[in-house]
Amino acid sequence: FQQFSDTGSRKEHVKITSEPKPGFLERLSETSGGMLIGLVTFLLAFYVLFTNEGRALRTAKSLDEGLSLVVPLDNIHSISQQNEGRLVHLVGALSTTKPLFDPSYGLSIRAVKLKRNVEMYQWVEYEDSKEYEENGEIKKETKYSYNTEWKSEVVNSRNFDREIGHKNPSAMAVESFTAVSPNVQVGSFVLSKGLVDKIDDFKQLSLSHLEDPHADVTRGGDYFYHSDNPRRPEVGDLRVSFFYAGLSGDDPHLGSAAMVSLQMFLYFASSVPSSVTSKNFSLSSKVTVIARQRGDQLVPYHTKSGDVLEILYSGDLSVEEVFQKEHESNTMKTWALRAAGWLSMFVGISLMTRIFYTLVDWFPVVRDLVNVGLKAFALCVASSLSLLTISAGWLFYRPLWALLLALLSVVPIVVARSRVPPKKQQ
Fold first, then answer.
1. Within 10 A of 250 (CB to CB), how many other CB atoms are there?
2. Degrees (nearest 5) of the Cα angle 242, 287, 188?
3. How do residues 273-283 score in pLDDT, each as one tens digit?
4. 301-318: b or e for each residue (b if 16 or more CB lie within 10 Å)?
5. Residue 349 and residue 345: Cα distance in Å, rounded?
6. Rg for the chain (alpha carbons), in Å?
7. Which residues contact 293 (CB under 8 A, 6 or more apart)?
8. How do residues 78-108 score in pLDDT, each as one tens digit?
9. Handedness of CA 69, 70, 71, 72 (dihedral sign)
10. 364-394 and 24-69 are packed helices; what angle lies between their axes, rounded to 10 degrees?
11. Sign of CA dihedral 285, 291, 293, 299
12. How far is the C-alpha of 46 from the C-alpha of 53, rounded, in Å?
């Protein structure tokens, strides 16, 4: 059954549900289902740990190969046929052939990417639950609270516990989008799609010197509001902001674009611009690129170890700095996946051994001891098997290290056994 109790405000209410305490067979059935999930999680951990080591070593080897072969380019405005097919390093300003436009707001900017972000003022539901046992029943008390916030995704109010008084529109009248320049260059070299995808350091566009684009749109700060009163918005009102990435730079063939102009047109009923306001606000973006030269294209470089080098960083970096950053990124990713693999194995073992806890659930003292023992068992086994799996991943690359790591994997089990008191000899 459900018991409702209002707090006096329609923006908050409490719901209490109760159900009979599950019997032994029900808990055993739930544990059996958890064992299956645990088995899948346990096996997934082996795959993550094993493939991660091969990936990490292959990436490190590819980076070392790239560092030994890369050719720095002194002049990015001329293409040398001697470097055809080779891995090259160049630094320069980004350039695009034409500005990016948002026709709905009459806005243009010379950059690699222009993002329109649309948010809607809408209801958001929050819940806070707690369970307790009372009169042989399991009761769950859930506190629901509602607040109005700006959200970039439509919140489906039909999933609310109480939609009455908290109903959101089903869609936004204006959509978000990201425009990408079809041709991006550094000097005379055209960047591949993979390199352009790496230009993602978005910064918010300042709209402080612009005017309202339409009669039903009001500018406030760095936002355009579709609202009668932006200071007191209502559910369903919209606000629009813009972000850019990769400002276009100087190019001898395209002309100077070191300073970017932001233009805003005022549209009347005829949609003809009547005035223009512009502001020079930022310098061009300089990037460092390492990729394979193919004509005037910069494309992925395939290493002998089977990896791909296609690197782009913001700023002016030397060859050594770029590859150091790549090694650091590879190390961070490797340790993150190792931690994820170990945690997956620990959870899997815990779920598979949960049945022993369920079997002694009726005896509180024994239950607590068994719970501690199962956690220690899962910790030791997960650590040992993780180290053993990592060593197996190193077997074909670093056999001596693999052997040492395999020996190290025995340590958690030895430590666990040493803490068990020996049986008395009879």
1. 15
2. 105
3. 333 333 333 45
4. bebeeebebbbbbbeebe
5. 6
6. 30
7. 79, 83, 84, 85, 86, 88, 189
8. 999 999 999 999 999 999 989 999 988 878 8
9. negative
10. 20
11. negative
12. 11
What single-letter amino acid sits at 120?
M
Ramachandran angles phi, psi of 206, nearest 5°: -75, 130
Return phi, psi of residue 215, to 5°.
-65, -30
The amino acid that residue 172 corresponds to is M
Query: Helix or strand or coil: residue 159?
Result: helix
Segment (H or E) for 92: strand 87-96
**For residues 353 and 358, what is the distance between their CA atoms, to the nearest angstrom?**
9
Contacts of 186 (CB under 8 A, 6+ apart): 76, 90, 92, 93, 94, 95, 287, 289, 298
Structure tokens at 414: 């030895």
Residue where the block lists tokens 């032994």: 24
- Both tokens assigned to 119: 């948010």
pTM of the model: 0.76
CA distance linking residue 382 with residue 392, whole number of Å = 15
| DSSP result, 321-353 | HHHHHHHHHHHHHHHHHHHHHHHHHHHHHHHHT
- Tell me the H-state helices in 70-205: 193-197
If we measure between CA atoms, which residue out of 32, 6, 67 comes closest to residue 318?
Answer: 67
What CA–CA distance (Å, rounded) separates 261 from 267? 19
**pLDDT digits over 293-332, tens only?**
999 999 999 999 889 999 999 999 999 999 999 999 999 9
Asked whether the CA dihedral 150, 155, 158, 160 is positive or negative, the reply is negative
Contact (Cβ atoms closer than 8 angstroms) between residue 396 and residue 402 = no
Which residue bears the tokens 């819940």?
A: 127
